[in-house]
Design brief:
With 353 residues, the protein is an alpha+beta fold. It is built from six helices and 17 strands.
């Protein structure tokens, strides 16, 4: 059985990736064709011609105005996926239509709905408003992961691994040594994990970007909305500097780290990452530094998880892993994801009766 929840919104791309040309990406095992119409709207449909399944993103297929012409036999499709012309005849078969996908552009991301289109409620898309806010400067990227998406969820909900895997970048001893708290909002479908370090070493990631030296107060507040969006609200300040009673926090530096965790297949993942900051907004050297540092950290995770995927694939059935206190957030996320899969299975069974 697939462990990928259906009837969900997933990030398919950054808005900047989609222009008036053909762009393809596989999401949850489904190859999807995207382009931006001449009016600026993003469209999404199956990247397979209905005739002989030739990928419409593959040359010599081409986009003419707002119509896609298959490069194999010339079937032509409009922006809604409906076939408007076929070779050698004037009548277009009624079933000549590509599957179209609900799509929303929001917070610099292109979101696509995988599942039953009638259930696509755009109000359910979680927000990450910092990514296109004028009050923040953002660097971002995407790395392919040859591992199931659940391994990345585990990784991001247990940041104690920063001490060991990311030492010299974002990891310090305090991250692993400081207890964390976990809260689960079942109704909203969100897992919260927090770790507040009152007196911690300042890692290079923050020392170089903020200019802070010496010990710091470092807060990590995680907010994960299964299946796709992970947000790390990071607060950095000199030791003893806390927010004001009214909630304002002018003497701290704030970094919003966002991951969109999108399954490509059962055993590969699109790892979208973004780092938004509320300081040094126009300093390109800070942007370049944070982009390089965070990509290095992401690639360290990718290398570790690619190995872990191979280990899991080769282990005998029934292997029992050990979980401890630091795993409470990840275990809560696993339960939520399992319920989403179960709900999809049950919904499909009801629909098929």
């Amino acid at each position: 059985m697939s462990m990928i929840p259906r009837d969900q919104w997933y990030v398919a791309a950054y808005g900047r990736e989609i222009g008036h040309d053909l762009f393809s990406r596989t999401i949850c095992g489904e190859p999807i064709l995207f382009w931006r119409t001449e009016a600026g709207e993003v469209t999404a449909m199956s990247d397979r011609c209905v005739h002989r399944r030739f990928p419409l993103s593959q040359a010599p297929s081409r986009l003419i105005d707002d119509q896609v012409v298959c490069g194999y036999h010339g079937f032509t499709y409009g922006a809604d996926g409906r076939c408007v012309a076929v070779p050698g005849q004037t009548r277009v078969p009624r079933t000549a239509r590509l599957r179209s996908y609900p799509v929303v552009e929001q917070d610099s991301f292109i979101w696509v709905w995988i599942g039953d289109p009638s259930r696509a409620d755009s109000t359910r898309i979680p927000r990450a408003p910092w990514l296109d806010s004028p009050d923040y400067t953002t660097v971002s990227g995407m790395e392919p992961l040859r591992a199931r998406f659940g391994l990345l969820v585990d990784n991001l909900l247990d940041l104690s691994h920063e001490t060991y895997l990311h030492g010299g970048y974002i990891g310090t001893p305090e991250v692993a040594n400081t207890p964390m708290t976990t809260e689960v909002d079942e109704e909203a479908g969100i897992v919260y994990v927090s770790r507040h370090m009152d007196d911690a070493e300042c890692p290079p990631f923050y020392a170089r970007s903020t200019g802070l030296s010496g010990r710091i107060t470092r807060w990590q507040d995680i907010e994960y909305t299964p299946p796709c969006l992970y947000k790390l609200h990071s607060r950095i300040a000199p030791v003893g500097v806390l927010p004001n009673a009214d909630g304002t926090d002018p003497d701290a530096f704030h970094v919003e780290v966002v991951y969109a965790i999108t399954p490509e297949t059962e055993h590969s993942t699109h790892d979208f990452w973004a780092v938004a900051r509320d300081f040094a907004l126009d300093d390109e050297s800070v942007s370049d530094f944070l982009a390089q540092q965070n990509r290095t950290v992401v690639l360290q995770d990718v290398a570790a998880l690619d190995v872990l995927e191979q280990v899991i694939a080769a282990e005998p059935a029934g292997y029992q892993e050990l979980s401890i206190n630091i795993d409470t957030g990840g275990l809560a996320a696993r339960r939520m994801l399992a319920r989403q899969v179960e709900q999809n299975v049950n919904g499909a069974a009801v629909a098929g009766r």
